[in-house]
Write a structure and sequence with these properties.
The complex is a heterodimer of chains A (245) and B (452). Helix content of chain A is 37%, strand content 21%. By secondary structure, chain A is of the alpha/beta class. In chain A, the strands form 3 sheets. Chain A has a 5-stranded parallel β-sheet, with helices on both faces. In chain A, strands 9-8-7-6-12 form a 5-stranded antiparallel β-sheet, with no helix packed on it. In chain A, a hairpin with a 3-residue loop joins strand 10 and strand 11 (232-235). The longest helix of chain A is centred in the middle third of the chain and has 17 residues, at 110-126. Chain A starts with 5 loop residues before the first strand and ends with a strand. The relative contact order of chain A is 0.11. Chain B folds into 3 domains: 25-207, no CATH class; 209-303, Helix Hairpins; 308-448, 2-Layer Sandwich (Heat Shock Protein 90). Chain B contains 11 helices and 11 strands. Chain B has helices at residues 3-22, 27-79, 82-92, 113-126, 172-207, 223-256, 258-270, 274-302, 313-326, 345-363, 416-426, and strands at residues 97-100, 132-137, 140-149, 155-160, 309-312, 330-334, 340-343, 365-372, 375-381, 430-435, 441-448. Chain B is rod-shaped. Chain B starts with a helix and ends with a strand. Classes of the chains: A alpha/beta (245), B alpha+beta (452). Chain A binds chain B through residues 13, 15-16, 19-20, 22-23, 26, 85-87, 106-111, 151, 153, 156, 158-168, 198-200, 202, 210, 214, and chain B through 251, 254-255, 258-259, 261-267, 269-270, 281, 284, 288, 291-292, 295-296, 299, 309-312, 315-316, 318-320, 322-323, 326-328, 340, 345, 349, 452.
């Protein structure tokens, strides 16, 4: 019996609060909308939402400060989706570093927001990451590679930047969040799908082989992502958060 | 008959460009040439005048001495026995004249001024005791011969040779050449002093990149140069402030549009009427693209330059193309670079993205081709309508629109290429557009290849 998901929206724009609430309620979710950090704390005292949408530009404590506060407090388990201005890559990056689960650039389509919310909820419910080892680390080391979370690219042993497509990055993040743990194709598909709402129809196998190519991994004898026939894939090396680049 | 003036004109027409071509192009060469020619001419004139003057003075004193010398010589010859006269002749000869025992000849009248002065002198010396005739020698106006008869009837000729300049000292040409060299050196130094600030000014103005970030000219040197440098720097400052203000305004407007656009998008999605919903969403998408590109442009023009890093260009292009393909767009990548490159990956990604977006917008598909020679060439090819040859450069201007073929219906904001070119410049690259021979457009980004 699925219960109704409860969304807490923190945005200082009155019209956006009203419109998002109307839309989400129309879609069958419950939505509490507040204007700032103080109201957010009051709302959290009353009820624990399933997901929080945080606008970055807020009067008083801004979204980044609130995100940090949430992640260090007793509500640390609640997934957060940040709303950023489209131009501001730094905000987005900082938001992800502070532990936001996803971000949406304004202007966004309500449909897209809904898709993200559902994806985030699905992800957190389905497979909680291993104690969030990689959360808040700007650089994650594995094997001879380093993943720069801020720039969303790999660095090889010589420090050469190797770019990743969005889908490859998402898949790699899933593997790095669950090292040495067998992930089924279905799990991988669910976990990678939805962080961006773009159509993502390729099978996980193609994506894995692309990621192996990126990691210069031999598909017949892979060092990083091993295939377990009929079971799925596993990242076979250890993962170390390296802090800042 | 009237062909002559025409021919003359055409002759002049042929000569003038030739003359113009002979005149050196640079101010440095012109000033040096003028100063050097003037000073050399003055020097030459002075030398000539000095030598002439010296010759005149010595000639004058010679002519004065001629009167007594000739009178004495003629009196001596007159009194010598006729047999001894020939032996005395060489002893009586002087630098300017000699005595000959030859009979009179005829010749043109004396006309040269120097010869007349001589003749006056000779007249004063001889007229009292002798009858004489005088004439110039045919073929040499300055040579004067005076004929008389001695008292025994022997003919005597005084042959005045044309005057010759006094011999110059052997060291004189060297001194003159040395002097000329000194003058040339001084000219060169002076002209260099005058033209160097101009060159510096041109270099500084050239260094002012398309981003219009001020490049300061050093305010030092002679007072005129300092003043010019100050004015130049102040002008740059004003340009920078002006551009900065406009870009800030563009960024602010674009940024502030995002909240109302977000509201509108949400409102549209809550609307019941589906027929209008789709159109409104498209309109809003256009508005949103415009706002985003406005910010992108302002940032490309005035953002902090991204640091250069070692980047695998193949992975960068491959991942970029895969993102398009994952999104359902028809984008292909061919060719490889096969070497890490020092570049600014964010800017590079943005340039290629804008070019691919453009190709997708006008042709529906894009092909990215990369190759490495002495430089890295990234081509984005499409099979669209292309761009009229005359507008291939103009489309890089913000908000420029090609008539008809790329109109507003296609939803371009006209900033994508401007941003791309701006960023290409920060990569030290060159971005150009070309119509392909078989139709379609080629956007060509040429980047320097610097190994890591």
């Amino acid at each position: 019996m699925p219960e109704i998901d409860h969304v807490l929206l923190v945005d200082d724009d009155h019209a956006i609060r009203e419109l998002v609430t109307a839309y989400l309620e129309k879609q069958g979710l419950r939505c509490t909308a507040v204007a700032d950090g103080r109201a957010m704390r009051a709302a959290l005292a009353l009820a624990t939402p399933d997901v929080i949408i945080l606008d970055i530009m807020l009067p008083g404590d801004d979204g980044l400060a609130l995100c940090r506060e949430l992640r260090s407090g007793r509500h640390r388990a609640i997934p957060i989706v940040m709303l950023t201005a489209r131009d501001d890559e730094t905000d987005r990056i900082v938001g992800l570093e502070l532990g936001a689960d996803d971000y949406m650039a304004k202007p966004f389509a309500a449909r897209e927001l809904l898709a993200r919310l559902k994806a985030v909820l699905r992800r957190t419910r389905m497979l909680p990451p291993n104690m969030q080892v990689t959360e808040a680390a700007q650089v994650i080391g594995f094997g001879t590679w380093r993943l720069d979370v801020v720039g969303r690219h790999l660095l090889d042993a010589e420090g050469v930047e190797v770019a990743l497509s969005s889908a490859e990055y998402r898949l790699l993040r899933v593997f790095l969040d669950h090292p040495q743990r067998v992930l089924s194709r279905e799990q991988l598909l669910t976990l990678t799908h939805g962080m961006d709402a773009e159509a993502f129809d390729r099978s996980i196998d193609i994506l894995v082989s692309r990621l192996r190519q990126r990691l210069r991994d031999d598909p017949r004898e892979p060092r990083y992502i091993k295939t377990l026939r009929s079971e799925g894939y596993v990242l076979s090396c250890a993962v170390t958060p390296l802090g800042s680049a | 008959m009237n062909t002559t003036p025409a021919a003359g004109v055409s002759h002049m027409n042929a000569i003038l460009p030739l003359l113009r071509r002979l005149v050196p192009a640079s101010l440095f060469a012109r000033l040096t040439l003028i100063l050097l020619a003037g000073l050399a001419a003055a020097q030459l004139l002075t030398t000539t005048l000095t030598i002439d003057e010296r010759n005149d003075v010595t000639m004058g004193s010679m002519i004065d001495s001629v009167e007594t010398d000739v009178r004495t010589a003629v009196a001596l010859l007159d009194r010598l026995p006729p047999g001894d006269r020939a032996a005395w002749l060489p002893r009586l000869a002087r630098g300017g004249y000699r005595f000959l025992l030859t009979p009179a000849e005829a010749g043109p009248p004396v006309s040269a001024p120097h010869s007349r002065r001589l003749l006056d002198s000779v007249t004063r010396a001889l007229a009292r005791d002798h009858a004489f005739t005088a004439h110039a020698v045919p073929g040499n106006r300055e040579r004067l011969q005076v004929h008389l008869r001695l008292s025994d009837g022997t003919p005597l000729t005084v042959d005045f040779l044309p005057r010759r300049g006094l011999p110059l000292s052997p060291w004189l040409p060297w001194v003159l050449a040395g002097q000329l060299a000194l003058v040339a050196l001084a000219c060169w130094l002076a002209v260099r002093q005058a033209t160097r600030p101009l060159r510096l000014l041109a270099e500084t103005a050239d260094a002012l990149g398309p981003d219009l970030r001020p490049v300061r000219m050093p305010e030092q040197g002679p007072s005129e140069v300092v003043r010019a440098a100050r004015a130049f720097n102040a002008m740059q400052g004003r340009i920078a402030a002006y551009v900065d203000e406009r870009l800030r305004m563009l960024a602010a407007i674009s940024h502030d549009l995002q909240t109302p656009i977000t509201r509108m998008r949400l409102r549209v999605e809550l609307m019941e009427d589906d027929s209008q919903q789709q159109r409104l969403t498209e309109d809003l998408q256009q508005l949103e693209d415009l706002a985003r590109q406005g910010i992108g442009y302002a940032r490309a023009m005035h953002g902090k330059p991204e640091p250069a890093r070692a980047v695998d260009v193949d992975d960068l292009l491959d991942s970029l193309v895969l993102d398009y393909r994952d999104g359902g767009a028809d984008v292909m990548l061919t060719g490889r670079c096969d070497a890490p490159v020092m570049t600014r990956p964010g800017a590079m990604r943005r340039v290629v993205t804008n070019l691919v977006d453009n190709a997708l917008k006008y042709a529906g598909a894009a092909q990215v081709v990369v190759e490495r020679g002495s430089a890295i060439t990234i081509r984005v090819l499409d099979q669209g309508p292309g761009i009229p040859a005359g507008a291939l450069e103009a489309v890089f201007e913000p908000f420029y629109r090609v008539e008809d073929s790329r109109n507003r219906d296609t939803g371009g904001s006209g900033l994508g290429l401007a941003i791309a070119r701006q960023l290409a410049a920060t990569l030290d690259g060159m971005l150009t557009l070309h119509n392909r021979p078989d139709g379609g457009l080629e956007a060509r980004l040429v980047l320097p290849f610097s190994r890591t």
